[in-house]
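re: ur msg from earlier - yeah i can do the zinc ion complex, just paste it... oh wait u already did. ok heres what im feeding in:
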Amino acid sequence: MVYWSGLAAVSLALPLAMAAQAEQTYFSQNFHHKKDALDHAHKLLRHNPLVDTHNDLPMHLAFVYDGKINDMNFTHFDWGHTDITRLHQGRVAGQFWSIYYDCEETETNQLLKAMESIDVVKRMVNLYPETFQIATNTKEFHHAWRHGKIASAMGIEGGQMIDSSMAALRQFYKLGVRYMTLTHNCHTPWAESCCDANPPPFEKGLGLTDFGKEIVLEMNRLGMMVDISHVAHATMHAVLNTTRAPVLFSHSSSNALCNIERNVPDSVLERLDETDGVVQINFYNPFVQCDPNKEATLFDVADHIEHIASVAGYHRVGLGADYNGIEVTPSGLEDVSKYPDLFAELIRRGWSDEHLIGLAGGNLLRVWKKVELVSEKIAKEKQLPSEARLGEPK
Ligand SMILES: *[C@@H]1O[C@H](CO)[C@@H](O)[C@H](O)[C@H]1NC(C)=O
Ligand SMILES: *[C@@H]1O[C@H](CO)[C@@H](O)[C@H](O)[C@H]1NC(C)=O
Ligand SMILES: [Zn+2]
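and the outut:
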């Protein structure tokens, strides 16, 4: 979820048929040898898992449809960017479903909204056991993938959802949540957001307070990935100074190509080696094509991927498209069925299979595994759960 405040816009149906028609013309004009590259992409993704780390379908199910999914037919939706047919067409092997609620709704019980979203993800998986399987670790991920199921994991989008409670953070882990985005577009009392016009309740530019650092270390102990999409650049640096485990950008693009705070600057890309982190590219039009007079396309997304690969390395880039969380999508990447077209373009640009396999999911799975190993190491050190509370001196 990127920009929207309020959920009203969510229910707008996409004119999918029109988009599909426009896109056919677009491809036939722009691709040479398109079919060969696309065949290659499908073959590669049949044998190697594609994992996307950010999809907002749960927000629609829990809040637009009020959690009433029993009579829905997930095979085909005439709204949004995601349904079972299109997930299979896109060769999606694993999906982190986003647990999100608008942080600006400060009167709302964010914990309850998170419970409703987690519940709807689990009920969706239970309704379609032949399609989905919950994955709470890399071993379960591979098990699901080997059995032809879409491995389903969860991330909470926005530190506001734990209400500054270590206890809530730990219980989210128990429920299966495997990453937390430290902020959405609002500051939390302990971390600075990219996109909040209000001053943070601490010195601006600090990034993280001492309590915020404790949260990061508690996430390391639990084995929950620390997601630094949506945070201020200062917070990215503060997290890199603090964490013992690799960092994740679950859905972010390049700041060098599109100079907005929400995107990742090269100065941070250059530090990803310090923790073995990964940036999962967001497809949202204004993040990948910053000239408002130009249409965003698949080629812009490919450019962002190539920029991040050129600065940080091919092993530091993956996919976090933000489908169902963005109200517009680039032409050529209209919905989850289109990932293979992106791979075809990168094949045309000369990407090796090894690098494509990393982009598809290998890089993210390496980071997830390493986060698990750091957690095991901390367990051997017998570090106890944090009892820190917001506002208490250290
Ligand atoms: C769901 O829709 C598909 C076609 O989109 C259809 O084949 C299937 O029978 C439907 N399932 C149910 C339970 O209605
Ligand atoms: C990160 O650490 C470096 C080196 O110690 C320091 O110069 C920088 O200010 C720190 N950044 C933040 C945001 O904490
Ligand atoms: Zn988001």
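cool cool. The chain has one domain: 38-380. ping me if u need the other ligands too
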